[in-house]
Fold:
Amino acid sequence: MLKRAVRAACLAGAALYVLPSYAQEKSQELIITPNRMPVSIQQIGSAITVITQEEIAAQGNKSLRDILDGQPGVTVTEVGGPGGAVSVNMRGTNTNHVAFLIDGMRVNDPTTVSGDLDLSIVPVQIIERIEIVRGPQSALYGSDSIGGVINIITKKGKQGPPVWIFRTEGGSYGTFSNKLSVAGATPDTNYSLSLNQFHTDGFQRVGYRVGRLAYLNPNGVDPMSRYGGSGKVSKQINDWLTLETGFNISRERLQYDSGPYSEDMLSPNPQTGRLMTAYQKVVAENGPFRTTVTSFETKIYRDLWLYTKDSTYGDTNAHYVYNGTRLGGEIQEDVKLGAYGALTAGMRYERERAAGDEDSATYDKRQNTRSAFVLHQISLFEKLHLSTGGRIDDVTGSGTFATYRVTAAYDLTQTTRVRASYGTGAKAPSLYQLYVPNYNNADLKSEKSQGYDIGFEQTFFAESARINANYFNNRIENLIVGDASTFIPYNVDKATTSGVEFGGEYNLVPGWAKLKSAYTHLQTRDESTGLRLLRRPRHAARLSVAVTPIKDLSVEPILRYIGERSDTYLGSRVTLKAYARFDVAVDYKVSDKLSFFARGENLTNARYEDIYNYGTAGRSAYAGLQMTW
Structure:
């Protein structure tokens, strides 16, 4: 009964939703990621979502996984709670088909199986906003962006004296977190620095199917701790030259279970990890010309033990160490052409290294990528906005591939806008897939894709209500998947994903209550087997009502629904049941200097799995305060 009610509510609400960015004045919103330079959101033909700092703060101190979950076209899975690996599938593509950027710098991990990024190591406290671009973006961002791009833009200082913020929170499963930051700006310099910490005692990660459910184990047995710091400083040297540098450092320690391939699958295993990203940027502007020169570096380190109990072959205690680096440089030239639009062109060099030690089997491999890209955008008759771009990537050992993208947006009326995009994508095999001992395949081919989407946005009632809809279709050749028994990767001939994204937003009572909802219908198919791709729900929906019953008090109930999905377990295909989850976020601003917040998660204590036989949190509550001076 609850499932049917949730589905009906979400589907009905889908007619009243818009992406968060469109709830603002479109003419004032500038977006960077879709065209690699600031562009009015009204001129963008790609399907995008912008998550603002205010929206992130309203959800309390949630993880990046929770913030991304439920966004149109996005499916998120987490392996057994905080600290577990997080996977993001965009429009049904693999998690390694999403390019993850921090301040425009790619941070995908070259040491993981498919070269994706574990989002659990990115603290939400450093985020200013998140820009999500859906659909093939290889024409501008190269490999890893078949499904789209997620750009995490970190905070920067605002004009004025230093502003200090301290935020603390605690709650269920022995969870507590703290953040201290300072930010400010002078006429020629702005800066932002922060320290953050997070700890949870966690819950049993493995064993959902044998009664070791998270909601039966509130004290937890799989802890995780993370702490780190970040900063960004920008200095305007003169009227035409600006220097900027930024960094993010994070360390974590966690405990995870041996898993189903051990006779004692609940045996604890320790893991530690470190992430460091840094960039340096020089921006020179001279009339219509803007030149940006950037150098960047990412270092990732992971150290873990895996205990396996086997009465037939004997017990093992394997040690795994992974070191990954990504560094390089890029030059980009932006030229304003007046009535002829704008031109963006650039070149990029990137070097990746993945080194590992898997129980005494070592490897140390590198690959270089040389790229060149160009994009032209133009607006005609003040209503039609077009962009055309292309890119060539030369990847060591994987060959050269060319990709392209075209987009169009047209203001049909003052309240109706239509948009469409078409693009191709490519993804070179990861260093892990090509070279890791015992589980590699040196004959892997690069994945290639082509995809398109078409949609519209419509406003009603003096822009107090907005709706949008997108239809998308992707076709992927040489899709790389892992064998369920041997774990060795291989190429699938073809796979297809298609579906519809609906959304809407409606001011039920202006200044008092706002309804938001989203719904994604997704079809996926492995053309070689005829089966659906794993962990992709056919239906996914989110419904919330942000209520302000009194001044400075906001309450937002959030309802999520995830439909039935397929998964694998011990080499066999299994089914994950559909589920609904109900959360509530509350924020009360006492003054400009002090505010209190609280959130309740899974308040109906729903039993559900993101991954077969891995636990999820039961009913839980968290509360905290923020002080500003």
